Amino acid sequence: MPTGIDFRLLGPFEVLAGREIVRLAGKRQRLVLAALLLRSNHTVAAHALAAAVWGDSPPATAQRQLHMAVSVLRRTLGRTPSWGELRTEHGGYRLCVADERIDVARFRAAVDTGRQLAAEGRTAEAARVFRDGLALWRGPLLSDLDGPVRDHADWLEEMRLTTAQDCLEYEVAAGAPAAVVEAPAPLHDLLRTYSVGRGRAAPADPVDHYLHSAYAMARIFTPRLARVVLPEPLPGTIVSRGSGYSAAYRWFEVEYPNLIAALDAARAAGPASRRWQLTCAIGGFLDRHGQWADAICLHQSELAVAEASGDTRGRQHLHHGLGLLHKRYQDYPDAERHFDAALDLCRLHEDEGGAADVLTDLAILRVNQGRDRAATELAEASLAYYREHGEPGNQVIALNVLAWCTAQLGDHIGGMTYWQEALRALPAPPH
Fold first, then answer.
1. Alpha-carbon gap, residue 257 to 293, rounded angstroms
2. Per-residue pLDDT averaged across 56-79, rounded?
3. What share of the chain is helix, strand, coil (3-state, %, to 5)?
């Protein structure tokens, strides 16, 4: 997809300009925009738009409120060059925007292409196209919006499920060893169908499979997750393991819809700890994938649950993740608030390794703020732990912070010494 504005409805509702979130003024603007996007490039009658926002009982001032909402949307979206156009037409409004800018339109295009390929007997190609389309889903449609607008798009959820089932059928027929596709509600049924087609028994607990597999993969590119202690896998659980960064990253790209489904299943039943554990693993991938807003939404949701249940271990890891994510947005006050909360909980748990990781990330935050002396003190504290406990990968990170800060403070020879030590500490590449 070309760079520029991106409207995302297949999950939490987001509007992105590049990688920056476009902040909408309030719930009404979000509902109006979502309703217009679901009928993009078509005129939406004012009464239909009011029904999508207020249902069967719109207020007497509905027309005026819609007009104001549209005016605000024009100003907000107009800050992004060449985003499209929001027109007032006779009896309604039309949102004119290129299909490639809307994830719903891209999903429908993938479904149409896949169905055409299947009709031509090219079912293996159809399955690949279906999988790409399903990967656009980040959760239930407009999952963070309440209102009738979601009821007006039930057909999309039905299309999602039908497409997932068709994709699975074509992959099983082709004997492909690919993972199951998706659909939150029928996840276990799809796993069972796939397993029967492959001549294997379905896992007794799909959530356990995804929990342990996600950590085996996520720890490859998010080493701090090695501090999360999981229960032993249940008997019969098969754990997928990656052979390197690329394999682990690709596993998350393919399995992301299933991971969201597993998180939904964990929310419905089982130990509450599995919720935040899955969230942290998924968040590590979303961070690398640039989906920071999605990751923040997941973390905040589970943090509220952990706070209500008194799960201090979950709070520790969720606060740490939120600190990193807010740092990505250069939202330093919120990042620091979450890092401080994580550090307090590390001390409560006497988790020296977790505390060292938070101190390292705080040190990087201080570097970003231009506070090199404060960053040096934090990195020295974390480096002492990493040296004592033989963690060379983490030593390299802390040493690089120290090298930069020392040089910035005028001690170039000292900075070079730290960099040389970092090079020596680098783990040997695999043969």
1. 17
2. 90
3. 65, 5, 30
DSSP states along 357-382: HHHHHHHHHHHHTT-HHHHHHHHHHH
* Domain co-membership, 139 together with 173: yes
Determine phi and psi for 16, rounding to 5 degrees. Answer: -115, 140
DSSP state of 227: G
- Residue 334's H or E segment, with its range, is helix 332-348
**pLDDT, tens only, 307-348:** 999 999 999 999 999 999 999 888 899 999 999 999 999 999
Q: Structural domain of residue 122, as residue ranges?
A: 103-197
pTM (2 d.p.): 0.58
Q: Is residue 94 domain-shared with residue 117, that is, in the same domain?
A: no
Domain count of the fold of the chain: 2
Task: Confirm if 236 and 159 have CB atoms less than 8 A apart.
Answer: no
H/E run at residue 63: helix 62-77
Residue 234 lies in a domain: no
Alpha-carbon distance 327 to 339, whole Å?
10
How many C-beta neighbours within 10 Å does residue 351 have?
A: 19
Residues 390-401 pLDDT 10s = 998 899 999 999
